[in-house]
Specification:
7-stranded antiparallel beta sheet, globular, disordered C terminus, Cathepsin B, Chain A, disordered N terminus, 2 domains, about 15% strand, alpha+beta, about 240 residues
């Protein structure tokens, strides 16, 4: 995840302590202040060796992605099929649509799973354009230091966005341009054909990513996300200050 500067450690400790206190009261966690983030050196890469796991079933891409994100965030190395089965079964129960088993988990179920098993800031984002989806994804990755989930192949598969480079820090400048991304797909080791899936933490240009990160389309029925670029993003929560 990158090394924090020594002068920031005390600030980070205070933020963590405050977050734990707020969580114990059942309140939303505040967004971390910009001064607590690792220094910007042109990009971010959250991927960690040992965090990758292959999906244990052709149906479990979203479950394997949850496992990978947990491994990254919690500094774990869980690769068990029992955990993937548990995530898959739980997310199926939280789908928006009643889908056949062969259709797996829909975006609502996936978002619920990332909130429940990883971090409660994850939200489903359906963007009208590729550029808008990519910009919001990398900005929120930078704001939270959490990976972003992407639906690829028109929703037939799921990847994790683990990093990016840009012309400027998204925390500081709205006019930044994304120059590359880092992605992880859980099919690697089970299948690697036509780009599905590449080695973990593969670097892609935005043009290359556009080939895979395509608008949602579930052929058997219409869904509310049709023709949208669907991602599951960690959305910062800003805690409003009480008036004095």
């Amino acid at each position: 995840m990158g090394h924090r500067q020594r002068r920031l450690r005390s600030a980070v400790g205070l933020v963590v302590a405050a977050s734990l206190a707020i969580a114990s009261l059942g309140l939303p966690r505040p967004a971390v202040g910009a001064d607590t983030f690792p220094a910007w050196h042109g990009g971010v890469d959250l991927y960690r060796d040992g965090s990758y796991t292959v999906q244990k079933s052709w149906l479990w891409c979203t479950a394997a992605d949850v496992q990978i994100v947990r491994n990254i965030v919690e500094l774990e190395s869980d690769h068990t099929s029992s955990a993937q089965r548990r995530y898959f079964d739980w997310m199926r129960l939280h789908n928006r649509y009643h889908l056949p088993l062969s259709a797996g988990v829909d975006p609502q179920g996936w978002a619920a799973g990332l909130r429940h098993f990883v971090d409660d800031r994850y939200r489903l984002v359906a963007s009208t354009t590729f550029d808008g989806a990519l910009r919001s994804a990398v900005r929120r990755l930078r704001q939270t230091n959490l990976p972003v989930a992407l639906t690829v192949s028109h929703g037939n598969h799921g990847w994790i966005l683990t990093g990016f480079t840009a012309t400027a820090d998204p925390l500081v400048r709205a006019g930044f341009k994304v120059t590359s991304v880092r992605v992880v797909g859980p099919l690697y080791g089970l299948q690697s054909r036509n780009g599905y899936d590449m080695a973990p933490d593969t670097r892609l240009t935005p043009t290359q990513l556009r080939r895979f990160f395509t608008p949602w389309k579930y052929v058997p029925m219409r869904m509310v996300w049709d023709e949208r670029y669907v991602s599951i993003q960690p959305v910062p929560v800003v805690l409003a200050m009480s008036p004095r």
